[in-house]
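The instructor's notes for this session suggest beginning with a concrete chain rather than abstract definitions. Hand out the sequence below and ask the class to guess, before any prediction is shown, which regions might be ordered.
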Amino acid sequence: MLDQIDDRTTFFALSMVTRIIEALAGAACVNAAFTIVALEFPKSVATTFATMETMFAVGFTCGPIIGGALFEVQFLNANEVF
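After discussion, reveal the predicted structure:
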């Protein structure tokens, strides 16, 4: 919906507010995930955290690659989805 805002100042302000909300939500999710993992696997906290961080890194690495490939073959058109 930000693409429908014509005023540059309003667009910038709402973009920043949106990004701040996304950052807070992301931080809350990571903290919640770490807490749940620590409570569910008390005997192997370090190993479980290492595995979870590895999977985060794999997701951050493979996500843009897969998304770019799908976009290139026109499987996923962002204008139609959003």
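Then share the key points. The helical segments are 8-40, 45-72, 78-81. The chain has a mean pLDDT of 87.
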